[in-house]
Design brief:
By secondary structure, the chain is mainly α. The chain has one domain. About 75% of the residues lie in helices and about 0% in strands. It contains 21 helices and no strands.
């Protein structure tokens, strides 16, 4: 039912609702159960308020001059090396990820600016610029804040704060690996060395970027200092982005602010419909005892935690080529959670693995959403983007293997802040 309705073009949230209602009809159950589960899920999850607030913060970052100032800072920092603008792309994603929590926001906002810089005067091919932008954009939802991690917390009942901490190490690992791959590709293709920013200019460039650089600091200090909850931190991030864009930098007019609010509202509504559909469908999955059935099947195969995580990685990467990350997190992941817990896999570790998989899926052929986004920005055929992206996908798989089979990469920082775990 879900596949058929999705094929004819119905949004996945509506498809989930439709499948749930058909199941209730066939089972001769009260149709109001679907509405009841949606209301309970939406109004009983305070954490969901963080999603529209992070979306708004990212949109304000994009419409204001914050992205430009951050990019200038990154260019001064690493632009002096061979393939420097590629390194700038990755570092900018690492920094911008501390503000948006969205891979698409990273690619559309910061990515559009850096692609224009990379392709100016023919320094880099548009396809290569698009490929490294797509690869680096996936770091956005891994380093906090992270909208996908908020969704995982919703279905797994884990701490958002510890999830955010768990994403920092893996995000940095992936960033370093991407920079290594870019350095290697830069030598193969003999990419140019940009003119370095004089050291005497560094204080000025840094000073201009400080208000923007303070946003992730405010978020992290607020959450882990016990001052704010993640949802309150999201509200603070949106307010901070609005104030510095509108009053400090004066780069956002009243009309632009209104348009940004409308765009954020549309994006929030889209996510909200998907969450509501997933809440109704998850009731069906629970009633049919699908998680218990899968758990029994996997236990019958004598899989240990390594084999299980290998299986999960393969399945999520395959699904990531076809489905959007939110659908996987809300519908597929709850099915695997009981088995992961029974095998002694830490829920924070498992959550980060899931998020990394779904983010790689955004850049994986044939239907990765980031592929279409960057191909649209660069005006290049999607197959050219894919060809240039393959080396980066290979290095991302290495990073995924490290994150999967070396749990301490994820858990050392949460444990440092008192996380017990499994």
């Amino acid at each position: 039912m879900i596949v058929l309705t999705a094929i004819v073009g119905l949004p996945i949230g509506h498809a989930l609702f439709g499948a749930s209602i058909v199941y209730l009809l066939i089972s001769d159950m009260d149709l109001s159960i679907a509405g009841e589960k949606v209301v309970q899920g939406l109004y009983g999850s305070y954490v969901l308020l963080a999603i529209p607030l992070f979306i708004l913060a990212a949109d304000l970052m994009n419409v204001g001059s914050l992205s430009d100032r951050l990019l200038s800072f990154c260019r001064a920092l690493v632009g002096r090396f061979r393939g420097g603008l590629g390194h700038v792309n990755v570092v900018a994603s690492l920094i911008f990820s501390g503000m948006s929590g969205s891979a698409i926001a990273d690619a559309v906002g910061m990515g559009r600016i850096i692609i224009n810089l990379m392709t100016k005067d023919g320094k880099y091919t548009p396809a290569y610029a698009g490929a490294i932008t797509a690869a680096s954009a996936i770091i956005g939802p891994i380093i906090p804040p992270s909208i996908p991690m908020v969704l995982y917390a919703l279905v797994s009942d884990t701490s958002i704060g510890f999830l955010f901490l768990g994403g920092i190490g893996p995000g940095l690992v992936l960033g370093v690996l991407l920079m290594v791959a870019n350095a290697f590709m830069a030598r193969i293709h003999d990419f140019p060395v940009d003119d370095p920013v004089p050291m005497r200019e560094m204080p000025r460039v840094t000073f201009r970027a400080i208000p923007a650089l303070l946003m992730p600091v405010i978020l992290l200090v607020g959450i882990y200092g016990g001052v704010t909850t993640p949802t309150e931190a999201a509200a603070l991030a949106a307010l901070y982005a609005f104030l510095i864009s509108t009053f400090l930098y004066r780069s956002v007019s009243v009309g632009q602010a209104y348009a940004t609010l409308r765009q954020s509202a549309r994006s929030t509504a889209s996510v909200g419909i998907l969450i509501a559909g997933a809440l109704a469908f998850n009731y069906v999955v629970t009633v049919e005892q699908v998680p218990n059935t899968i758990q029994a099947m996997l236990q019958g195969t004598d899989l240990n935690w390594i084999g299980f995580l290998l299986l999960v990685n393969v399945m999520l990467l395959a699904l990531g080529c076809l489905l959007e990350a939110s659908t996987i997190l809300l519908v597929i992941v709850p099915i695997f959670l009981p088995t992961a817990t029974s095998l002694g896999i830490d829920p924070i570790h498992f959550g980060v693995i899931v998020v990394v998989n779904t983010m790689i899926g955004l850049a994986t052929p044939p239907y990765g959403l980031l592929l279409f986004v960057v191909s649209g920005i660069t005006k290049t055929p999607i197959w050219e983007t894919i060809r240039n992206l393959l080396p980066f996908l290979f290095i991302l798989m290495i990073g995924l293997a490290i994150i999967t089979f070396v749990p301490s990469v994820v858990l050392w920082l949460p444990r440092l802040y008192g996380y017990g775990g499994i």
